[in-house]
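Moderator note: this is an archived Q&A kept for reference. The question asked for a predicted structure of one protein chain; the sequence and the answer are reproduced below.
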Amino acid sequence: MNCRRLLLTVFPLLLFLSLSAQNARMVYERCGTMQYLEKKLEQNATSRERFEQKRIEFNRVVSTRTANQTARLTSTVYIPIVFHIVMTDPNAVTDVQIRAQLDTLNKDFFGINGDSVKIPVYFKSLFGKSNIQFCLAQRTPEGDSTNGIDRVITGKSEFGFDDGVKHTSSGGTEAWNTDYYYNVWVCTLSNNVLGFGTFPNDPNTAAEDQGVVVDYHSLPGGSTTSFSGGKTLTHETGHYFNLYHIWGDDGGGCTGTDYVDDTPNQGNSTSGCPTGVVTDSCTQTGNGIMYQNYMDYSDDPCLVMFTLQQVDRMETALTMYRPSLFSSNGCQHVVLSNYDAQLRAVNQPAQRLCNAVFAPQVTIRNRGSQILTSVLINTQIDDGPVTTFPWTGSLSTYNTALVTLNNLTSTPGFHTLTVYVSNPDGNPDEDHSNDTLRLGFQYATNVTTLHEGFEGSLFPPVGWDIVNNDNSLTWQKVNGISKSGSASVMMNNFNYDHIGATDDLRTPSIKIPSITDSAFLSFQVAAATYTDVNNTFNNWDTLEVLASTDCGKTYTSLYKKWAKSLVTTTVPTGIDFVPGPGEWRKDSIDLAGFIGTNDLMIAFRNTTGFENNIYLDDINLRTVVVNPNLKSQGFLVTPNPTYGTVAVQFYPQPTNLKGIQVFNDIGQKIAEVTAAGGNTSSYYTFNLTAYPRGMYTVRAVFTDRVITRKIIKL
């Protein structure tokens, strides 16, 4: 959406006079949505192409539903909305302004806005009235009572049209679950931008970033002379439900489109507040352009309507892309019980245990109206015995306590820990819906060997686990695709349309004995891209191998590859990549630094770039323990005596070695190998089977010395 600027074009003298008269107009850019979208799509060429594919498919669905008259909602849908006011002084925005903004938004969507009388008679038949309505959220995602207004003090004076205001780490505040709430951030926007929103089919916008941002000046009662009627939020909410600017964002070329048939073709955005029929280069006759449409850039008093097909498009977007909003209970009031203890979280254990004995850690919360002074916290592993921990303290309504429980002991395998609270203040709990939580975890003893080809029926294999933080696509076993055997594991990046998500495939805890002299982890990898690997400024799928010695709390990166360094075929693949026999590569990682470690965990981490699939197979740990005699002597010939074959070994691998010779007892040379060009090995063999019994001499000839050993042939 190309955003319109209200430009100051007066001469300095006139400007001075107009400012003196206090009737100057600020330079405002109505909307930054298209710039926001463009910045997102620039991150990855694949994302742009797939965004277009989704848009084409959505337009086809809308067309079909409109033709069959099935696009419209049959009853009113109420969507909970939360206003996050993120400012240095969030009280500068009053509750009255927020309620007035909500009232404007609902009237505009429902088509009962009083200013709809401004719709010209020739457009009245196109006036669209949606069944989408909004309520101020009455409960938080945690189930607490709220008024739907979340005030947050920030140290930032303004935010740009990016995701900064949506995250605490950048001075903003996190969204409430965007599956069940419409999140609106109110702040001071830089560059006089009035607002921007997220399209529902943008693969580069994370779920937690979905929503709308508006400048607080645009709220009803705000200081913007022409944009303080609350229409900015109506406009941005149109984007949130997949509407485009009415002029098609083509800069006056008449070739752009808003994908809506009942809006006239329009050359560019409208400024000011026109009256009567207005024509332009794209619509030169008839009723002219629809500058009254909420998706134009006219001043707020002029924006008074959506069209019928715009409503079809928004309601289809709701059902296709945001259906979970239908099932949200955010509009329902919270009624507190007298006695209601809530088990809010099971903080420990993590999904992986590295010790059989562990102490569960939980967060309890008082959701009753009475002060909580005692509660029983009960734990159970699988169907085993119940252990009860009596907690005492003092918690007023909505306050929490972190509680560490008594030790429990696990056996190897996958388990379920059930924790539930009971008897708040010695009374029956009046709401059992928040009493119980279950947590899956596994415990496995350390292994000293690792040879995994994913051929077994269990996935993940015993002792392995997967960390899938977003509960989306993750590592999966695939049959019929492998380097060896009949199976491998795959990360389906081709269909994973969110960039930057991480998924870990983790090995069992490994013990590498201290007597080990060298250790290597090897694996087969196959990977391809959707985009040409020579593209610059692209987000790529990344494979990283990490090591942890504290049960996954912290990691050290050992290997990280993407694009050219990762792929096993340089040809971009526009379909799901399935490797052929020659499209695998064996990579190896030196684990010498972890020798003597008892709890080494290796994680294969995929970071999505919306490119193509990555496969792993034949993950093996190879350890070498050098013969102690060889280690102490540096040169060993075994076995001695021998019946035929002898091995000549060096430690460490020799330098300056010219060759090895074998002589019989009368001084005849019967065998020799040379180290041509300095290419040496630490291991050589000689077969003496064809030679008679007796004494033989093995000579290792270096540039600076000769080492000999006597051997007996039996």
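Archived answer notes: Confidence is low (pLDDT under 50) at residues 1-25.
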